Fold this sequence. Notes:
The complex is a heterodimer.
Chain A: H1 4-19, H2 23-35, E1 41-49, H3 57-66, E2 69-75, H4 81-86, H5 91-95, E3 99-103, H6 106-109, H7 111-115, H8 122-146, E4 151-154, H9 175-191, E5 196-199, H10 201-208, H11 210-213, H12 216-222, H13 228-246, E6 252-255, H14 266-269, H15 282-297, E7 301-306, H16 310-319, E8 332-335, H17 340-351, E9 358-362, H18 365-374, E10 379-382, H19 390-395, H20 407-428, H21 432-438, E11 441-447, H22 450-462, E12 466-467, H23 475-483, E13 487-496, E14 499-510, E15 516-523, H24 532-546, E16 551-556, H25 568-571, E17 575-580, E18 583-589, E19 601-603, H26 605-609
Parallel strand pairs in A: 1-2, 1-3, 3-4, 4-5, 6-7, 6-9, 7-8, 9-10, 11-19, 15-16
Antiparallel strand pairs in A: 11-13, 12-15, 13-14, 14-15, 16-18, 17-18
Helix pairs in contact in A: 1-2, 2-3, 3-13, 8-9, 10-13
Chain B: H1 3-7, H2 17-29, H3 50-64, H4 70-75, H5 79-88
Helix pairs in contact in B: 2-3
Amino acid sequence: xxxxxxxxxxxxxxxxxxxxxxxxxxxxxxxxxxxxxxxxxxxxxxxxxxxxxxxxxxxxxxxxxxxxxxxxxxxxxxxxxxxxxxxxxxxxxxxxxxxxxxxxxxxxxxxxxxxxxxxxxxxxxxxxxxxxxxxxxxxxxxxxxxxxxxxxxxxxxxxxxxxxxxxxxxxxxxxxxxxxxxxxxxxxxxxxxxxxxxxxxxxxxxxxxxxxxxxxxxxxxxxxxxxxxxxxxxxxxxxxxxxxxxxxxxxxxxxxxxxxxxxxxxxxxxxxxxxxxxxxxxxxxxxxxxxxxxxxxxxxxxxxxxxxxxxxxxxxxxxxxxxxxxxxxxxxxxxxxxxxxxxxxxxxxxxxxxxxxxxxxxxxxxxxxxxxxxxxxxxxxxxxxxxxxxxxxxxxxxxxxxxxxxxxxxxxxxxxxxxxxxxxxxxxxxxxxxxxxxxxxxxxxxxxxxxxxxxxxxxxxxxxxxxxxxxxxxxxxxxxxxxxxxxxxxxxxxxxxxxxxxxxxxxxxxxxxxxxxxxxxxxxxxxxxxxxxxxxxxxxxxxxxxxxxxxxxxxxxxxxxxxxxxxxxxxxxxxxxxxxxxxxxxxxxxxxxxxxxxxxxxxxxxxxxxxxx
Amino acid sequence: xxxxxxxxxxxxxxxxxxxxxxxxxxxxxxxxxxxxxxxxxxxxxxxxxxxxxxxxxxxxxxxxxxxxxxxxxxxxxxxxxxxxxxxxxxxxx
Lengths: 613, 93
């Protein structure tokens, strides 16, 4: 938890740079950070550039602090990116960075595309594009092979002086087209390297405006191409990368209603009097709802926490013709006159997520300060006075930014609604067993393949509660496990009569010793208490027996959050053999015994074929 | 008040122009504004190196809303010279 006085000082400092985002303001703010808040999490950053990147330092330090980080920044020597990445004793390597940012200008990376583009035959342009991308990608891959630090590479900005002038967009193989293809190739090739990403310079330059982002005199005087406005925009995006790389994304957006999803107070104006519609001012709120809809489609859960008369609010949610969001879009709803922090806790419990996974967006300064005071783990965002700034205020927090997209994300909202249906069924069921059988669950357990890979890494990184060892394997580490003949990784997919829960379990089994060892076993919180862990264990025992193992062992490493997994081994008849700093060790003889597959879950045909029974 | 000053906002806008000038340069050079005077230059302020010279140019542009040319940037060899160049942009400090 952040110390309140320090948080206040940081907010003040950020408010000052936001009011005047100048070079002098950022320098002043960066200096105050030196003597200031020590609750910031240290992060080691390396900046490697083909040009003079130094002026970005105060901007990056301040923007990193906005997301809770204290940047310890190393700057590689001018225009020596390859050496810095490839030499095991380079300044970059010795800095032991947590994150590496690489930036090229087009003029530095591929001068031939800049200097005399119209002299180049198409085939030569294609070759240059492949060469440039190949050089960057191979240096990044070589660095990633010996460092766990993610690498973020900027892409290229189209020239302001397009060779064909106004006719440029009509020319099939123009310079602009070559740069677009260069950027597309770069992104595709980097995507094949775990931990490599593109930072969209092209988008930032468009956003700032290429005329304002580039400063010709600084470029010619000092090979420093970026203006102060450009530096601020780059630093903001770098800081969002830090957040997305080092902090789990928030999962749930909790919204107020009056003067947030629509204009005006429903209780006073009535359903016909609130501002929501196709024209101003209602169009502003409608557009904001559209932005929220996009977040939801990306996998962010939505919830309502509002002081209204529920029947009136329900009427608007279900019936107002201009609502973009409808009742079924909200995974949890608290419309009442209770204190909002109490509602917040209830929503967190209902959705089975932590308060640190929630964002609260409300227009009332009083409600916001109450929430910050009562539940500092919730990220509280006060809606700006002008509703046209709502979207930016929400999105600029970077709270929902993530660096992958899995099919599960897009369906998360639907899955949580199905969860609500399951909960209702639980209330109606006579006993737990009856409830579980009523769910008509089918489990499919398979070796981790390319399709499941991203989701499995995601679960390994994020699962806190039902997790025996909480080993946070990176994508590269998981890849190594899959390539190791002595280890196997499996995923569990669970469907039931309410729908597909997706991939909700992961296990890693290690056969390298005399016994089979359960390296990892975890379950997503949405299926805890449904015997899925027993299914996983039964499957693992079969696999171990198939490899001729007579015993299976496991470790339980206690953490602040994994109490739900604490009795896993004792429940399944394991004998406790030792205890040390890493936790308790358990053993089960499996030469003549097995673990019963749970009666309430059916095994998918593929799972049976894959070695179970 | 000049045109440039009317477009700058925030707390600093209320300060006297000379104070804003010294404060902006001092922020970049990481020194106390009281240590600076008209004669301050790269020769007598240790932190005024070529990189911070660039930063000073950007800081002044932001502070006073002016666009400095490359030649002007090279000529900003002391605070006195900076004041003279700003004056040609209609900023009297």
